Every structure is written in C-alpha cells, then in structure tokens.
Recover the amino acids of this structure.
C-alpha cells in the first residue's frame, strides 16, 4: 500500500517511454525497498537523531542585547556572524533599487578672487554688491478728467461705435439702414427719443448718400449734446438758509455714502461749514463709513444707534446744524427698495419733519444712480421722484463696465438736472457734469 502511493507520487505526470526517463536515484531505490518491507510487516531501523549543538548551552539574555562592537563567541560548533543577504537577493535589490550614479566629473575647488579681493562666481551668477542700482520709478502721468470719463464710458462707446462702423461699411443710407441704426442706439440704452433724433438728423442730411461710421458718430454726439445740455447745471446753494439741507436718496449700493463724503470734501475745502447726518440707521456699515468721511473732510458728524428713527435723527441734525451755524447739512438715507412701502413711509416722514423746521427744507433732494445698472436706473428715478421729490441726479460708478447711455434716456424723459458724475472712489473722482464731454466720450470722439 505504502509502496503504491510512493510510486504514484514519484511517477505523476511521467508518461514518457521508459527509454526517455532518467534512471532512478539511489535514494529513491532505498525508499522503495523500505516501503516493501513495511508492506511485508518487517520493521525498519530508524537512524538516531543528530545531537543539537545549541541545546546544552544556557543562553542568558536577561541583560538585553549585547553592546555594539562586543565580541561574538561561538556556540558549539556554530560561530555567530552577521546575517548577510544571499547573492541573488542582493542582485534583485540592486535591480529594483539602483544606486544613484555619482557624477564623475565634479571637482571641488576653492573660491577665486580677483585683484580687488572680489569673489569670482561662475557664469550666470552675480553678487548683490555688483548689481546695478534700480532706476527710480517714474510716477504715472495723471489722466485728465476727460480721459478718465472716456475710460469710464469705454464699454458703451466701443460697442456702439464698432457696430455703427460695421453697419455703414460701403453702404448707402436707406430705410433699412436707418432702422438698424435706431435699434443699435436703443440697445445702447440711449432711449427711443434720442435714437429717433439721431436717425432723423442723419436722414435729413445724408439720405441716399454714402455714409461712414465717423459721420454717424459726429451726428450722434451733436444730438446727445442737445439732449444733455439743458440738464447740465451746477448745484445751487441758497446760503441764506442756514443750514442748506441736502437730502441724499437712492438704492443701497449706488454710492450714496461715498458721494456724500466727496460732496463734503468739496464744500469744506471751499471754507464752508458742513455737517453730515447718518440717516441710514439700518446699516451699521453706512454709519461707520459716514463717520470716517466726516473725519477725513473736517465735517461735523451726527449719528445714532442702529435701528433708531431716521426722522428723529433728521430733526436732531437740523437743530444742531442751526445752533452751530453750519452752512450745509447733508443727510444720508436708507435705500431698501425691496421694502418699498416702509421706505416710502420713512422718506415721507423725514421730509415732513424737516418741513416743520423750515418750510423750504429739504432744499435739495439728490438721487445717486449706479451707471452699471442700465435700465434699472430709469425705474429707480421714477420711484424716488414720487417718494421724495427728487430734484437732481448724480451718476456714480462710471468705470470700465458702465452702461452710461442710460443717463441720456433719463435726461430726455425726466428733464432732471444732472449735477455731478463719478468715475472712481477717490475724492477727486466726482466732477461737475459737462454735456459735451459726456456726448463725445459716448460717441468715441476726441475732446
């Protein structure tokens, strides 16, 4: 039985002819003989086990590992030696983790110095002492007011003039062309009235003739100037009323507080005594910002706690300004247009309270308009004119993203004076409105 199992194990898979198989080893023959004797019931003699050379030794490890460098003693016939990896393992390790090659041509030298004891560095390096002195920065030339205005109206101007030039390339003026031009002007927020004025003048002068983009820009600038000229007025102050009360209204985010600060800077700079009142009691930031502007411009500041009655603040501000003999009192207001009913009631109350103190107060009601809002500015004028009796406008944020053409449409419809326009956050970025400059900037014409 044992013999049969051993033969199966050693002959598994060996189906080759006997002539092709190698001769059985002597060990295999011995194993087969032992198996035959076991099957016959005979006993086999088991060789004695080899003696363990380490077993008789007493291994004392209580003292911990031996110190570095301690001599190793042989145990029995086996000498302790550090275990080293086999040759094949070392070759595999080197194959998968090759050692970085050291550059053979790198030499270590010493720093060299010239006659002046200056260190000589390789090409491409320099000592900081040898670098040339940086040239002093030349201050940027300050742009003129018209240049800043033209930059502010760049979006409206470039888009409009580009479309006009494309429309009138090698084309005679006919009804279709006039209709397309009118659409372009309306899309630029100039308004229907101004668009019809431009196309009417162009038709009367150039109908049936060749027209260039420059011709259209010139006529457009002239017609825009005619619309804006009547509303380009200075802000008149009746200083016989002390204080002259200016109520500033507008939607939150249109630049009311910043505009008040700029107006205060101009007035106090001319020697007038100015007081600023923080009537937007719903925004802590507006109160704090107005306080900063008052400190910067040397104006008197009056504020109250957050959420206080704005009409009560207006009353206190007027009484204090009159007692201090202030020339101008400028009152900031809230602009929560989403709460139109509350806003209307609040502004009406402020106007009513001021009217009890001075029948003519507020003497000026200014509305700030954000030039980037386009047609929304038209709607805001209608709302605040009905609520607070707006009698003057200030256009703010005429920067590179402005859609300033809406001011032309507002002027044509409401005929409200436009006192100032702003092109930035600086004190000097608020200037009186000039109709011709504004028209030329929109049309892309030089000053």
């Amino acid at each position: 039985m044992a013999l049969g199992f051993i033969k199966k194990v050693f002959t598994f898979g060996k189906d080759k002819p006997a002539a092709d198989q190698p001769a059985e080893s002597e060990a295999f023959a011995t194993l087969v003989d032992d198996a035959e004797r076991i099957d016959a019931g005979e006993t086999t003699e088991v060789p004695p086990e080899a003696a363990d050379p380490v077993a008789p030794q007493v291994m004392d490890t209580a003292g911990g590992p031996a110190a570095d460098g301690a001599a190793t003693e042989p145990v029995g016939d086996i000498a302790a030696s550090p275990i080293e990896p086999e040759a094949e393992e070392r070759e595999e390790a080197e194959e998968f983790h090759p050692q970085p090659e050291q550059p053979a041509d790198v030499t270590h030298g010493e720093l060299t110095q010239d006659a002046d004891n200056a260190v000589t560095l390789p090409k491409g390096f320099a000592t900081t002492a040898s670098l040339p002195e940086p040239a002093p920065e030349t201050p940027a030339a300050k742009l003129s007011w018209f240049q800043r205005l033209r930059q502010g109206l760049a979006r409206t101007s470039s888009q409009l003039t580009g479309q006009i030039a494309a429309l009138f390339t090698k084309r005679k003026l006919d009804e279709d062309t006039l209709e397309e031009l009118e659409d372009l002007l309306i899309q630029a927020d100039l308004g229907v009235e101004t668009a019809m004025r431009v196309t009417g003048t162009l038709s009367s002068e150039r109908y049936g003739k060749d027209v260039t983009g420059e011709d259209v820009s010139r006529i457009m600038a002239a017609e825009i100037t005619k619309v804006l000229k009547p509303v380009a007025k200075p802000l008149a102050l009746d200083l016989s009323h002390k204080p002259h009360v200016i109520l500033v209204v507008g939607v939150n985010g249109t630049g009311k507080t910043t505009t008040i600060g700029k107006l205060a800077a101009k007035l106090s700079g001319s020697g007038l005594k100015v007081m600023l009142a923080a009537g937007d009691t719903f925004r802590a930031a507006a109160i704090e910002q107005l306080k900063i502007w008052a400190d910067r411009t040397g104006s008197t500041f009056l504020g109250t706690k957050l959420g206080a009655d704005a009409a009560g603040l207006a009353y206190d501000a007027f009484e204090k300004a009159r007692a201090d003999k202030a020339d101008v009192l400028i009152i900031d207001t809230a602009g929560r247009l989403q709460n139109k009913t509350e806003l209307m009631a609040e502004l009406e109350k402020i106007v009513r309270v001021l009217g009890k103190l001075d029948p003519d107060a507020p003497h000026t009601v200014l509305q700030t308009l954000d030039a980037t809002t386009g047609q929304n500015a038209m709607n805001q004028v209608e709302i605040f004119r009905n609520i607070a009796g707006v009698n003057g406008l200030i256009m703010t944020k005429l920067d590179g993203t402005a859609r300033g053409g809406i001011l032309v449409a507002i002027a044509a419809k409401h005929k409200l004076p436009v006192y100032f326009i702003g092109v930035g956050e600086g004190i000097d970025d608020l200037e009186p409105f000039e109709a011709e400059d504004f028209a030329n900037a929109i049309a892309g014409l030089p000053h």
In short: The chain has a mean pLDDT of 79.
